[in-house]
Amino acid sequence: EKENSSAGASTCTCIDGYFRDGTGTCQPNCLKGSSLNPESELCQRCPAGQYGVIESKKSGKAICKECGADLNSTEGSSGEDACYCTKGFVKNSKKLKCEKCAEGIDCDSPIVNRSMVRTQQGFYLLRDTNDTETTTYAAGRTELPVLISCPLKKACLSTDDDTGLTKCAEGHHGFVCGLCEDGYASQGPLQPCLRCASLGVNILAASALLYASFALIFGLTYLAQSSGARP
Prior knowledge:
Pfam families: DUF7630. By secondary structure, this protein is α+β, with helices and mostly antiparallel strands. It has one helix spanning 196-229; strands spanning 3-4, 13-14, 18-20, 26-28, 34-37, 42-45, 50-54, 62-66, 71-72, 84-85, 89-92, 97-100, 123-126, 135-137, 140-142, 146-149, 156-159, 166-168, 172-173, 179-180, 184-186, 193-195. Strand 5 and strand 6 form a beta hairpin.
């Protein structure tokens, strides 16, 4: 029995779990992420590029809606959060809209969710372990993590696929990869971290060059004085 009625009612209503279609027939409600095919009268998954919603609480009818321009989704997706931006775009979290990819984000592949954000070399990615940060890109707000331009570009590599964190160059670690690991040292601001042995060799080489320069100057001065002293 798909219909019920009450005393004095002029029409019958569909029981819970059913809705009345255009022909007046009670059809079973489809699950969210699918919709009723009017021809086959069977539920079918929402196609890629669409997402499933319940039309209204009263009807309980599941329908599919388009994600929109520059957006895509997987088949059978449920809710607009399932829509993601195609290559070269990032999603605005205030409205279902895509915006041009911000500098520093690697948008060569679609960003399906924030955990898939990858950075370009020279940028440091901040991630909040509580998943709460919201930052501003272009004209709207998005849930993508904060990107910071690294002072020493070559110290910040791309994102680690296993951890989702920024990979630092050898010998570097910490915020914007600006600290030297144990056994490494830097010769000054915006200088790379080198192994201490390598740093010592560089200092010796610089000292040798300095002594050689002094020797050359002394030699040239001696020759000049000798030439001037000749009758």
